[in-house]
Design goal:
Elements: E1 2-9, E2 14-21, H1 26-30, E3 31-34, E4 38-44, H2 48-59, H3 64-74, E5 81-87, E6 92-96, E7 105-109, E8 112-117, H4 124-134, H5 139-152, E9 162-168, E10 176-180, H6 188-199, H7 203-211
Length: 225
């Protein structure tokens, strides 16, 4: 039902992920990230609490691998879950239970991991990882390139109806949270890609407006002097 890629950028210390699915509102349920801590995904038969739990464990000082190992030992219905995590040192962790749906696979490198279920091909995560490694630009640019590569490699076996991009930096809130929660035309990835094109040049200005609006660029709305 889902394919995703999670990553940490050591140059900026940003964390982010992209995700797409045939299910509605996949990013709202499956994408989790915390500044300075890590990024986690809970997918397949989703329990959103597991993503938060992975972040809590990593924030307590555990690596992604140790956090995953502890969670898998204790979580209920773990055979239904597919879980991914990246920590602040670039460590990754993965779990895919025995009840993972359809064709599934994963691929990982330093600070990056991709995985999916009900895939058109088990090579989809490899294609996403390869594109992330070679893409130019910011973390958000590279994440979107990876999501598009997953689509081009076949993506999910069925139609994709929702997608999203989530990024955190040094704030307590996401610096980017772009979503298409449902598309009957099965083009949510393209919608999120377009939203990123529009938002990326303005992202720093929105962060500055939160930190100190006195030093921020003008708002660009009627009545702004």
């Amino acid at each position: 039902m889902t394919f995703s890629l999670l990553a940490h950028c050591p140059e900026t210390d940003q964390f982010g992920m992209v995700i797409a699915s045939s299910s509605p509102a996949v990013a709202a349920r499956c994408a989790h990230a915390r500044a300075g801590v890590g990024v986690a995904a809970s997918q397949n038969i989703t329990d959103p609490a597991l993503g938060t739990r992975l972040l809590d464990l990593m924030q307590s000082g555990l690596t992604a691998e140790a956090a995953m190992r502890l969670l898998v030992q204790d979580a209920a219905f773990i055979d239904y879950r597919q879980l991914l995590a990246v920590d602040a040192t670039g460590g990754t962790a993965f779990h895919s239970g025995g009840r993972t749906l359809g064709v599934w696979g994963h691929a990982a490198g330093r600070g990056v991991i991709a995985a999916g279920n009900l895939l058109a091909s088990p090579q989809v995560p490899d294609a996403m990882l390869a594109r992330f490694a070679t893409a130019a630009g910011s973390l958000g640019d590279r994440l979107m390139a990876a999501l598009l590569a997953g689509r081009d490699a076949g993506g999910e076996a069925g139609p994709v109806h929702s997608a999203g991009l989530l990024m955190v930096d040094r704030e307590s809130w996401p610096v980017a949270s772009l979503r298409c929660d449902w598309s009957d035309e099965a083009r949510p990835i393209e919608a999120v890609a377009r939203a990123w094109q529009v938002y990326a040049p303005q992202m720093a200005a929105y962060v500055q407006r939160a930190r100190d609006p006195r030093d921020a660029p003008s708002y660009g709305v009627p009545g702004d002097q």
